[in-house]
Amino acid sequence: MPRVRLLLVIVLVAVSVLAGPAAAAQEFRVLQLNLCHSGVNTSCFNGAATLQEANAVIAAKQPHVASLNEICRNDLPQLAPAMGNGLSAFAPARRPDGTPVRCTNGDEYGNGLIFRSPAAGTVFSGQYATQDGGSEKRVYVCVEFADLVGCGTHLSTTGNVAMAQCKAAIALLRDRAVAGRQTFLAGDFNLKYAPLIGPDVQDCNAAPFFRKGDGSVQHVFAANLGYVRTEVTRMTYTDHPALLVVLTRP
């Protein structure tokens, strides 16, 4: 082998060794669950069996975060062990007079997030400016970490109101996403993708977000995260399937 070619091979090998393998992206699993656990809607309420099934799904899917709708505040500590007792956050839904909506057991009703990570984060929540004429003011709950911000929400059953709330939720997070922050928004949006009638959930999306859904009303919006796959799992003790969106963090 000519000396010049030999030297070139040695240099290339040395550079390869020094550089080492590229760091692999880490999976980040977002699990969205509407548990219908208030007891108010008797057509889908199944009591303790619902939480048992939710724990089984969490154990099987091993999410990094669970977004929970239609739960009671004290459901969180019953689900937290399956999530490694990471950081939990809860936002109670409110009546028009400002009092909390209650489950039939008297507990506060609303939305929750459970992160597998034990890292400290800042919790913030609120209700949307646009609401329907019903007895529940819709809310969002978020947790912001140093390198990630995530929110969960449950929107109005009135299509145009749900669309306004969806756009407001995206707007709430968009500055962070545009600045390059890893960002996600999960929930029951009561909006479908490409419906025959009513507003299209995709119309509330805005760059740099992308959306993945369960084929019905549950969706995950994400920005500055990679996408791997979506899994939809039928559930027996609630009226919504489990939606798992597998993302990657750089």
UniProtKB/TrEMBL annotation:
Transmembrane segments: none annotated. One of its GO terms (molecular function) is catalytic activity. Residues 1-24 form the signal peptide. InterPro entries: Endo/exonu/phosph_ase_sf, Endo/exonuclease/phosphatase. Pfam families: Exo_endo_phos. Keywords: Signal. SUPFAM superfamilies: DNase I-like. Residues 53-200 form the Endonuclease/exonuclease/phosphatase domain. This is Endonuclease/exonuclease/phosphatase domain-containing protein.
